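== Folding the chain ==

***
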Amino acid sequence: MMFRNSLSGEVERFEPIRGKRVNMYVCGPTVQESFHIGHARTYIIFDSIAKYMRLSGYSVFYLQNITDIDDKIIRKSQELNISSQEVALKYTDEYLDIMQKLGVDSVNYYARATEYIPEIISQISRLMEKGHAYVGGDGVYFRVSSFPDYGKLSNQRSGELLSGSRISENSNKADQKDFALWKMQKQGEPAWESPWGKGRPGWHIEDTAITETYFGPEYDIHGGGTDLIFPHHEAEIAQMRSISGRETLAKYWIHTGMVTLNGEKMSKSLGNFVTISETLRKYNSREIRFALLNGNYRSTIDFSENLMEEAGKNVRYLNIIKGRLELHGDVYGNLDLDAASYRKEVEDAMNDDFDFRSAFRILLELAGTAYREFPNLSLNSVRSILSTFRWANTFLGVFDTVENPGVLKESVDLLLDLRKRLRQEKNYALSDLIRSSLVEMGIEVQDNGKDVEWWIRG
């Protein structure tokens, strides 16, 4: 297995620190508002990566944080006139619910920042002891000049560092590049006791406190969106390496590309914002997963109706072929189709920098061959193709998982036969009611001349 390591900029062979055991950490959400489709892409990609690695024989412990205390959460609580804890709980529940709906279920543990205050304080204390941190007028800051490798991940030199979204001019800093480790309490804000006074953690320190708790000072994979490379991931590296004295925080770094809308970065402040919840009302999870996986995971994609329509067509096609194979009947041909070769091609694609696009292309080619050769397929061929589809679905999540397709087919076909008779009798009101009722149950119906096709929609 090989993939691009953001730290080196090269495609490298994956060699975990401890045999087949893999510790993977991905930056989770800040829970202060509804989540947009860009968040969905990152978490769907890492869900598929974790599942594929497990399928390939690795024992993956996938850890994700939830930032449940932050400037934005506090502002939201003030807007809504509720506590910051209530805001965090509301949006944490929403996040976990939509992840479940998207089939993102590979995370072993969600660690909430506020549950790690003692670990955060411990890390800050050690940074101060080693001369990497200092107390300013409004908090404790990391001294960036004390860590020569700051900027290595984002390929920036210290004197050329860009201003990050959460870096602001502050006279309490010794250097404007320094970042907050602990923020002193302001009136009305939630706070915890610390050696430096009541306050709360900065954004970056929660991650390293959490990963050190579960993985120690060094682990295998750190992931997140490309927008987190600077300053967030640079800060994490500086913090943990300054404490540990080691050469790396994570051996491999994986970053996912952004999702744009109308060619612009998705941002609520710009009015360029499509939530996952509203997308799920229009499209099913399989269509969303296909759309967001079907491409180079590191590249930016533009979210659009065309993108989703194309994904829908491909998902319907794959599932129609799968359904036909599951309900093939008792008469088989003599053609032995070697589906194992297609599976090997999918494996090769995934092992080559998680090439999801090629994986989907190969599965669509297999579906096309199955469609053309349907009457000629042997029983072993049918079983082999279905086995390949089900194997791929364990990490892609684009096929339906109907438990008893035979019973479903008999029921739907009975209703469609009744609908056909009603249409012949020109009883369109009742025939349309049957179709709309099927749609409400998640069965899409399409009339193609004399034929009628149907597939599971949701």
Notes: Residues 422 and 430 are 7 Å apart (CA to CA). The longest strand covers residues 59-66. Residues 405-456 form one domain.
